[in-house]
Structure formats: structure tokens, C-alpha cells
Amino acid sequence: MENTMVTIVKYLQDNHAALGLAGPEDVLTTSRPTRDMPALSVTVTPLRTMPAGGPGPAGLWVVAGTRAEQFLTVLELECRHQGDAAAGDVYWNTVRRLRDAAETLLAGPTKAGLGMERKDWTDPEEPVVAGRIRFEYQSDEALDDPERPAVRSWYLTYEVRWWRPIPEAV
Fold it and tell me: CB–CB of 60/69 below 8 Å?
């Protein structure tokens, strides 16, 4: 699971410009404190992970000649804009553009859901391919928090299907 999340966050960080973010540091995870958040950001939150059954015993797949285990993670992206409430600079259009950019990026070139290599980050200098990840858009919801009038958030929910290879028994 950790390798899957690191792969997703790194992909979003590498594509921060396509999202309209100032830098890779504007892609956040739930493990980062929310104080001093940037004006425009995307927060990645895995909600739950479960085995995703498939053909064969116990949901095992054979992918490119390798036995693999498949999982399903429900992932939430919070597209967030914090404006200057005193100046009245809190517009839905800013966060809507961020949401649209995230949807386009994760839709992939065919618009059927981005597919990408899942990497094992045991050695961060040289990660190795260890499976695949595919995004499936589920829903989105805009929220207006009366407690924080200067913040606009748009939540995108994805089903992320991913598999990892199973080492052959010795």
C-alpha cells in the first residue's frame, strides 16, 4: 500500500504544473500538518483498501507471466483554495480549475482512467517497477465550510485498482 501511495503522490508532484500548482510541495498527504497550507493545494487521502478478487484462487492474477495480487483502494483528492477572506478573494472558479486539471490528468490519454507503473520505493534513488495502478473516477463534491469562509474545497473520489507481484515460492 505504501509503495502505491508514494507512486501516486510522486506522479502528482511531477505533474504539479499541469495542475496549476506553484510547486511539488503543494501536493500534500494526510500525514502533513495542515497549518500554513499553500493557497492552492491537492491533498491525497486513501480512505480504505481491500483485496479485489479476480480469476483464479484467492483473487490471484497472472500478469505478463507473473503471479500477482490485486487490490482496490478508494482514494480521495481534496482540491483546495484558500483565499483572502478580507479581500473577498474566495472564488469557486479557482478551485474548479484545479478540480478540472486533476480530473484531466487522472483520466489519462484515452479518458478511460490513467494507467501507470507502480514502483517499489525501497531504494528511493532507484525505484523498481512492481505492478500497475489504474484510476477510475467515481464522484466529486464541492464543500463550503462555514467555519472557514476563506476556504473552498472540491473532493474527487477514485477507485484505484492496483496489483503487486507475488514472489514465487522457493
Answer: yes
Which domain does 8 fall in, by range? 2-165
| Residues 6 or more apart in contact with residue 90 via CB below 8 angstroms | 81, 83, 84, 149, 150, 151, 152
Q: Could you tell me if residue 170 is inside a domain?
A: no
Rounded CA-CA distance 163/62 in Å is 10
β-partners of residue 134 are 115, 161
Give the Cα separation of 147 and 144 in Å (integer).
9
Question: How far is CA 27 from each of CA 57, 104, 130, 164, rounded to the nearest angstrom?
Answer: 38, 16, 23, 25
* pLDDT single digits (tens) 71-90: 999 999 999 988 776 666 66
DSSP string, 68-100: EEEEEEEEEEEEEEE-BGGGTB--HHHHHHHHH
Residue 66 lies in a domain: yes
In whole angstroms, what is the distance from residue 76 CA to residue 158 CA?
Answer: 6
pLDDT tens digits along 112-140: 899 999 999 999 999 999 889 999 999 99
Q: What is the CATH number of the domain that holds 134?
A: 3.30.2000.10
